[in-house]
Amino acid sequence: MAKLRKVLKRVGLCVFIPALAYILTCIVADAIWFNQINAELEAIKSKGQPVDPDDLMRMTISSRDNGAIVYQEIFRVVEKTTTPNDITILTKFASGHTQNNLKLCDRTDAILSRDKQILAMIEKAESRPQCSFLIGRQDGYSLLLPKTIELRYPMRLLSANAIQEAHRGRMNESVLSIKQAFKMIESLKSEPSVVGQLVRVALYDYASKGLHESLRFGDISEAQAKSLFDILADMDIERGFVRGCEGDRVAILDIMSQMNGKLILLILVKDNFLLYNKPPNYYSNPLLFVNAYKALPPIAKVKYRIIGDAYCRSGFLGDRITMLRSKRNTIDSMSLPYKEVKSTLLTERTSQMPFYAVCTKFMGSTETGIKIKRYVGECKVAGDQVFLALLAFKDRYGAYPASMSELKSKLGWEILVDPYSGGDFKYKRQGRGFVVYSVGPNMKDDGGVQHNKQFFDASEKGDFVWEMDH
Q1: Closest alpha carbon to 211 in 254, 174, 172
Q2: Cα(309)–Cα(312) distance, rounded to whole angstroms?
Q3: Judging by beta carbons within 10 Å of its beta carbon (0-12, 13-18, 19+), is residue 61 exposed, middle or buried?
Q4: Dihedral (CA of 403, 453, 340, 41) sign
Q5: Alpha carbon 125 to its chain's center
Q6: DSSP assignment, residue 448?
Q7: Taking Cα atoms as reference points, which of 204, 106, 103 lies closest to residue 148?
Q8: Angle, to 10 degrees, between the axis of helix 116-126 and the axis of helix 67-81?
Q9: What is the distance between the alpha carbons of residues 386 and 388, in angstroms, rounded to a whole number?
Q10: What are the start-end ranges of the H helices in 151-193?
Q11: What are the b/e assignments for 235-260, b being 16+ CB within 10 Å?
Q12: Strands 426-430 and 464-468
């Protein structure tokens, strides 16, 4: 009996000492991380940046002044009247498939005639001074999955209309459609989500294609070029991405607090969800996981609750501070010149985060991808401004300039530099027209050879190129 008591005592010590050490470690870690989180939140508040959804809700505007109210009406009309085939037709039409394709032109004409109501509604939306979509948590979190993605069809419609008007020789009407497209993009610069800002860059790509395709059929005047140039000058891609990162930080913090540490369970019980035939959207919409967890059998709940609680004690606090620091670094780097962040773009990966940063990895976009797309968007806008300035120069003087310095000195417009090199865009005359290009992410002059991908990183060769053949 004495031997048994001795064995039990040793076993008890073997269990008690590690358990006590674990509890004390967790208490110390909790205190450290809790203080760090509070310090980080106070620093955010001191900069006037949003911390919770209420901060973003206070930035909303009245319905009378809000173009987003009209856009939501447009979304309902689009849902009732359009088909996926309409989108395919408009995309092909805006991508340079108009020559010798009468069938495509006729089908585009039919869509534009049918959707005159939508074009009129877009004009109404843009007559309002601001545009801000409702911020809420219905069906997940509308901050992370914004309504802006539904603007793709109206944008395609505007681009197609601009090209069709130019094709008919009505350049004034064509420029008006391009202006509306640019204004739609400019109005979204305060959209508080990274996805919203990425959609904004994609929308700009559609609008830019509409501009360049329209110019195949006619020239624009200096006044028209200047009106488009000035709208682009107000787009502020950098500020848009900063705002998007701030909104994502608010959204992820709020979701973390609603989860109360259960997100680790979402990953641990993924196979369990599959056994119960849960639909795929459980894996893309974090809040739906909470109800799925409640639906698990009692034994499964106990099993994963034990594992989850062990994580939640300290790991979840560590996860929060990791997310806050990651977003802070991203926001701070948004205002830096490309050359100062280039080296980090090749090395940053979410896999470098601490093992306990499960939620940050699961719910946050890769910071590297966000930065790459921000500079791409900024480059495209700046390049189109230079392109428009060159067209204005020709309209004023009858020929294109011999160099970028001549363009800047004689035209008198504020010509932006290449965001990648920090210097002037590369420019050269070519036949009756010209070529202007950015050196791209590798910061090397590759001779104006266009890269075949829309987004590429600093390890790849290629330039962003704009050409005019007349």
Answers
A1: 174
A2: 5
A3: middle
A4: positive
A5: 22
A6: S
A7: 204
A8: 170
A9: 5
A10: 152-167, 171-187
A11: bebbebbbbbbbbbbbbbbbbbeebe
A12: unpaired
Closest CA to 159 of 198, 103, 106, 215: 215
Residue 74 token pair: 């447009």
Helix or strand holding residue 467 (H, E): strand 464-468
C-alpha to C-alpha distance for 265 and 263, rounded to whole angstroms: 5
* Residue 253, pLDDT score: 82
99's torsion region: left (phi>0), alpha (psi -120 to 50) or beta? beta
Q: Where are the alpha helices (DSSP H) in 168-281?
A: 171-187, 194-214, 222-233, 237-259, 263-268, 270-275
Task: Quickly tell me which residue has 């488009």 as its tokens.
Answer: 228
User: Residue 285 contacts by C-beta under 8 Å, 6 or more apart in sequence?
Assistant: 139, 140, 145
Strand bridging mode 426-430 / 433-438: antiparallel
Question: What 3-state DSSP class applies to 381?
Answer: helix
Give the E-state strand segments of 295-440 in sequence order: 426-430, 433-438
Q: Please list the residues that pair with 437 across neighbouring strands.
A: 426, 465
Among 211, 268, 204, which Cα is nearest to 237's?
204
Q: Let me know: does 88 contact 66? Beta carbons within 8 Å.
A: no
DSSP conformation class of 429? E
Would you give per-residue pLDDT tens digits along the chain (470 residues)?
Answer: 666 566 556 655 566 666 667 667 767 777 787 888 889 999 998 988 888 877 776 656 777 888 888 999 999 999 999 888 888 888 888 876 555 577 888 889 999 999 999 999 999 998 888 888 776 554 445 555 567 888 999 999 999 999 999 988 999 999 999 999 999 999 888 888 888 898 999 999 999 999 999 999 989 999 999 999 999 999 999 999 999 889 888 888 877 776 654 544 444 444 444 333 344 344 444 445 555 556 667 776 665 555 555 555 566 778 888 889 888 888 888 888 898 888 776 665 545 677 677 667 766 556 777 888 899 999 999 999 999 999 999 999 999 999 999 999 999 999 999 999 999 999 999 999 999 999 988 888 888 888 766 655 566 788 899 999 88
First and final CA of the chain: distance in angstroms?
102
Measured CA to CA in angstroms, residue 292 lies from 279, 285, 312, 362, 369 at distances of 11, 11, 19, 17, 31
